[in-house]
């Protein structure tokens, strides 16, 4: 790159977009942060509302997490106006159609499985407990980022991994007094285990997406982010639809809608807005992976999860007992370590690269 107006590589993430000025890069990051926080917080709360009001279809809860993928076209068409399309300099390094198809199919199937695990977890757990356990995705992401993306494993990150693990352990040994009505002790444990599994798989997906952008797709434009979002969502939606019909849950949807406590119109609107919220969140997730890194995307995702327990206490009257409060403080502490590490990395990058220098072409 030769334009000295372009920003310096930040937080050890992916290469910054060519032709993007410093302020434009920050605008893109800020917009994607907003999409992620607002979308995820709203989606989790609406998902809990769906179950509380009488919804019971795990496959429907899974399907709505990707079914609204066409909405991604709207923000990405707007955001793409900030950037210039640039191809990899070596045309031979471009992936073939078969390679891209295989990549999107594999990631799409993993996304569908991850969404199902999240749906089961939210069915059996209060929104606040669910969100606190999801905070462990930072610990999982630290491990996968180290193994897959060569992320440095610093003392602060190691400390955060331990703290977030303790937070999840506290919730695991907590009684089920905060579980939704009618949930057994066994289902409560299943909810914890599936949410932990979903957090681990989600973190693996983030690292695999970052690796895909760096090593396979190797093209710096928002069009590749749009393609990743659309095609993996199509695959995940197809898998979820097949699961909905294969499981027979589709037969119960009409009765579920008629018996929904808030009415059939509320049932439809809940599913529609849940789908929209998840898609807004997904746009933010992939956008931040592309602009910065999977680790940074996961940090912002956890910030959103920290908002949910507070809101769920107000809206759903979730029980905020001492164990859950300590777990929340641990989660905030662990997230704080991540933010401070990113702050130190940013300062180090600025000292290493003068403002007039160009951004490097390789990720750290």
Automatic annotation (TrEMBL):
A Gene Ontology cellular-component term: membrane
UniProt keyword annotations, A-Z: Membrane, Transmembrane, Transmembrane helix, Transport
InterPro entries in alphabetical order: PUP_plant
Ribonucleoprotein recorded as keyword: no
Membrane topology classification: Multi-pass membrane protein
One of the record's GO molecular function terms: purine nucleoside transmembrane transporter activity
TM helices/strands, residue ranges: 25-51, 63-83, 95-112, 118-144, 156-174, 186-209, 230-247, 267-292, 299-316, 322-340
Broad class of the protein's primary localization: membrane
Name of a matching Pfam family: PUNUT
Location(s), subcellular: Membrane
PANTHER family recorded: OS09G0467300 PROTEIN-RELATED (PTHR31376), PURINE PERMEASE 11-RELATED (PTHR31376:SF2)
Family: Belongs to the purine permeases (TC 2.A.7.14) family.
Protein name: Probable purine permease
Organism phylogeny: Eukaryota, Viridiplantae, Streptophyta, Embryophyta, Tracheophyta
């Amino acid at each position: 790159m030769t334009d000295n107006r372009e920003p310096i590589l930040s937080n050890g993430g992916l290469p910054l977009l060519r032709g993007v000025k410093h302020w434009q890069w920050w605008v893109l990051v800020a917009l994607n942060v907003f999409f992620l926080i607002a979308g995820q917080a709203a989606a989790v709360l609406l998902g809990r509302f769906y179950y509380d009001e009488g919804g019971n279809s795990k496959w429907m809860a899974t399907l709505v997490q990707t079914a609204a993928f066409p909405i991604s076209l709207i923000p990405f068409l707007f955001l793409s106006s900030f950037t210039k399309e640039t191809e990899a300099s070596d045309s031979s390094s471009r992936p073939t159609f078969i390679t891209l198809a295989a990549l999107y199919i594999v990631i799409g199937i993993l996304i569908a499985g991850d969404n199902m695990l999240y749906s089961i977890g939210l069915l059996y757990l209060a929104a606040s407990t669910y969100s606190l356990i999801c905070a462990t995705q930072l610990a999982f992401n630290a491990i996968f980022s180290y193994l897959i993306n060569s992320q440095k494993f610093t003392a602060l990150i190691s400390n955060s991994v331990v703290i977030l693990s303790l937070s999840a352990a506290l919730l695991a040994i907590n009684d089920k007094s905060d579980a939704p009505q009618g949930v057994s002790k066994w289902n409560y444990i299943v909810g914890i285990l599936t949410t932990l599994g979903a957090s681990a798989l989600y973190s693996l997906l983030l690292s695999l997406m970052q690796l895909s952008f760096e090593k396979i797709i190797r093209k710096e434009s928002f069009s590749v982010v749009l393609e990743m979002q659309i095609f993996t969502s199509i695959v995940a939606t197809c898998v979820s639809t097949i699961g909905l019909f294969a499981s027979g849950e589709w037969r119960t949807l009409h009765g579920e809608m008629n018996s929904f406590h808030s009415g059939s119109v509320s049932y439809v609107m809940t599913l529609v807005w849940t789908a929209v919220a998840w898609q807004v969140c997904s746009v933010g997730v992939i956008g931040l992976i592309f602009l910065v890194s999977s680790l940074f995307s996961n940090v912002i995702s956890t910030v959103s999860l920290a908002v949910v327990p507070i809101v769920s206490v107000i809206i759903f009257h979730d029980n905020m007992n001492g164990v859950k409060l300590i777990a929340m403080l641990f989660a905030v502490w662990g997230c704080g370590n991540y933010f401070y590490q990113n702050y130190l990395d940013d300062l180090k990058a600025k000292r290493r690269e003068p403002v007039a220098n160009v951004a490097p072409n390789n990720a750290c």
